[in-house]
Amino acid sequence: MPSPESAPPAGxxxxxxxxxxxxxxxxxxxxxxxxxxxxxxxxxxxSKSSVLYHFASKEALLEAAIGPAIDRLEELxxxxxxxxxxxxxxxxxxxxxxxxxxxxxxxxxxxxxxxQSLAGIAVIDRANASVAALADNFASDLEGxxxxxxxxxxxxxxxxxxxxxxNFTDESDMLPxxxxxGALISVVSELLAPVQYRPHTR
Length: 202
Known about the structure:
Number of helices: 9
Number of domains: 2
Radius of gyration: 19 Å
CATH topology of the largest domain: Tetracycline Repressor, domain 2
Helix content: 55-70%
Number of strands: 0
Shape: elongated
Order of helices and strands: HHHHHHHHH
Strand content: under 5%
């Protein structure tokens, strides 16, 4: 019988990659609480012991599944200061943020929908902290309620649009990703065009 370390058949992803992908799909569609390691193993075609060989716990599998998305979100937060520098920098940030949402849509779906119920799990706490930091940027750096609402509706609305589409739209009815990307960039850019930042004091 092959051991958990055995190489997968030619053309098949490694066990850890396959298990991460299956887990992410299940966490997004069924929920973390509603997904068991046995279910993940069955869907992926591995034994539960193989899952535990690669991931010590369901929490460790969640970390592996959504951790890269949180890493990227934290990088984007580091770039958010560029929004005030020029229109070109703002546009670059908008496009990067939309690309993040599209590339990591299952991960975003998972931590937006389940962030509060899974508080206390380290990777979810990181996600919640990043979302809070994004909101804090609006509150501290923008002038007036209208500016803050514009920013919140633009970025938060883009995220919610993708999450809602996954929840309520049949896969066959989903628009092509390039069409979704273009539409989101256009709408978010229009919403943020009038935003004015509070001048920095020295």
